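dumping this here so i dont lose it
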């Protein structure tokens, strides 16, 4: 089983990253090699020179999204090969929806997932709900008034199929999934009051 916590600092790679993986996240990378002395050689398209950097300095050349995405994708490939399970906390961090949709597709296709590998992830990005076909594999984690955390399966909440799940989530139709209008107004009034008080000093 693999686990990736996206709240950690940018991961420092200590093993080769296939160019095909890196180019999925940054197509300006022409090639990326790691030599026997643990030095990365990075060549960008349109540039004659290549950059020789240590694993610690690689994040200076590649974005956090490329670094995190490449690390996650290598774990994805590993679990797909072995039919294992991958846990990713806050999958959406530094990745756009198209990249995440591709990861979903890798797990839902029998061609790329012949061994039944499983992806379990948390997210604060409700739009990702619209990419998932099944409702019995989606859980909402909500803190209830008694202080306990409730895990509710989407299929048990009788969702409407004529409205996007993300819209239902943001409109609070599942309960305690988004701030209510009164809470938003309370915050706005507080900020307005603070600004008025500061300007009066």
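and the seq i came up w/
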């Amino acid at each position: 089983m693999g686990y990736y916590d996206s709240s950690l600092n940018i991961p420092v790679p200590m093993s080769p990253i296939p160019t095909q993986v890196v180019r999925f996240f940054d197509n300006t990378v022409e090639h990326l090699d790691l030599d026997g002395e643990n030095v990365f050689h990075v060549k960008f398209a349109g540039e004659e020179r290549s950059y020789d950097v240590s694993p610690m300095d690689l994040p200076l050349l590649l974005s956090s999204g490329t670094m995190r995405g490449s690390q996650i994708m290598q774990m994805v490939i590993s679990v797909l090969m072995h039919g294992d399970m991958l846990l990713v906390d806050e999958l959406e961090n530094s990745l756009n929806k198209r990249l995440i949709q591709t990861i979903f597709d890798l797990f839902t296709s029998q061609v790329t997932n012949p061994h039944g590998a499983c992806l379990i992830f948390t997210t604060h990005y409700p739009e990702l709900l619209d990419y998932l076909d099944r409702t019995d594999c989606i859980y909402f984690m909500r803190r209830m008034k008694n202080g306990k955390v409730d895990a509710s399966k989407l299929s048990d909440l009788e969702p409407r199929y004529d409205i996007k799940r993300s819209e239902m989530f943001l409109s609070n139709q599942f309960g305690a999934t988004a701030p209510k209008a009164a809470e938003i107004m309370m915050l706005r009034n507080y900020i307005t009051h603070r600004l008025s008080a500061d300007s009066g000093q």
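Residues 130 and 165 are 6 Å apart (CA to CA).
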